[in-house]
Amino acid sequence: MTTPEDPSVPAPPTGETAPDEVSAGAAATLDAAPRNPTTTEPEGSEPPPPDEPEAEIGADETAASPPARLPDGRRLVTLSPADRRRQSRRDFFLFGASAVAAAAAFYAVLPDTTRERILSEGEREFLDSLEARVGLGAKRRENILNRALTFDDDVAEALYSPRRLVRTYRRSDLTPVPNNYAGETPDSDYIPDWKLTVEGLAGGTPATLGIGDLLPRFRRRDQITRLCCVEGWSAIGWWGGFRFAEFLEAFPPEPGARWAKLESSVNLDSDGDPDPYFVSIDLATARHPQTLLATHQNGEPLSVEHGAPLRLLAPMKLGLKNIKAVTRIVYSAAEPPDYWNLQGYSKYDGL
């Protein structure tokens, strides 16, 4: 055996191992390594993470095609054809039931005139008989619709506050106020003989007043507010007049009165025939500081188009409550009828 001291055998370069030492080291390494003929890990690499439990494999998946993963790591499981068919049938029946329920609800709220226009007599009789079987007769249908309207009224009335004021504007914000008479505009011939009758007074005797009796008696107040129409438009107008609250103090209602009916006898329908217009207003709203009996617009006396010589201006109500050309006021304890409410509209009409 040769030794490193033997000058005839060259020493290995620095960093290398002699052949005999390599063989011995390799054998020791193989003996220490796990017996895995298919996998070898390079020295210094990190060990692989532990295997995760396998997700359930659907009927359409195989072990060779693992389930897809979402970005958050969750695995998608493919439904079997039988499961897809069951889900499709369920969705179809649910959609069909929803469509039938929606159609039934829509038919239940249709007015009789609309039903007559879109359905034959036989179809109406069949559907009406179905309604009757489930307890949705004509009277109950009307009660349901009325309750829906009064619910909105109840909410608006509950939110009313005599201390809450509507927004006011500057003169630079004014916009044209349309002449929104439902029928023809009355002729101005009624103005010279115009009178206001007030009934239901505390003294019991009705009062008859001309515009000359009112203007000197009350302080004129001006305000610029928005008038909102149920048809969807609104306008900012400059109105002048006296507060309804001051009128109530000068002409107090009888004890127990809670409502006022305001009527215009000069109102006309679309054919130009007399069609008296009337609204109901609760006295709490009448006493609101922004509720006026208006006599002026834009600093000038009211024109016929806007209700000369006296109209109601209640900006916390829809425009249909803001009656023009008032000729009669009646105080009462019970709520009086209202023109548009008798035709199916709401009656409180608060904003």
Describe this structure in words.
The protein has helices at 19-32, 81-108, 112-118, 121-133, 138-159, 211-214, 244-250, 283-286, and strands at residues 196-199, 207-209, 221-228, 234-243, 259-264, 277-282, 292-297, 300-301, 311-313, 328-332. With 351 residues, it is an alpha+beta fold. The chain has a five-stranded mixed β-sheet with strand order 2-1-10-5-6. Strands 3, 4, 7, 8 and 9 form a five-stranded antiparallel β-sheet that branches. It starts with 18 loop residues before the first helix and ends in a 19-residue tail after the last strand.
Kindly report the spatial arrangement of strands forming the biggest sheet.
2-1-10-5-6
CATH superfamily of the largest domain: Oxidoreductase, molybdopterin-binding domain
Number of helical elements: 8
- How confident overall, as mean pLDDT? 82
User: CATH topology of the largest domain, what is it called?
Assistant: Sulfite Oxidase, Chain A, domain 2
Ranges with pLDDT <50 over ≥5 residues? 1-9, 15-34, 36-41, 55-64
- What class would the helix/strand composition place it in? alpha+beta
Number of domains: 2
Number of strands: 10
Task: Explain briefly what this protein structure is.
The protein is of the alpha+beta class.
Task: List descriptors.
Sulfite Oxidase, Chain A, domain 2; about 350 residues; five-stranded antiparallel beta sheet; disordered N terminus; elongated
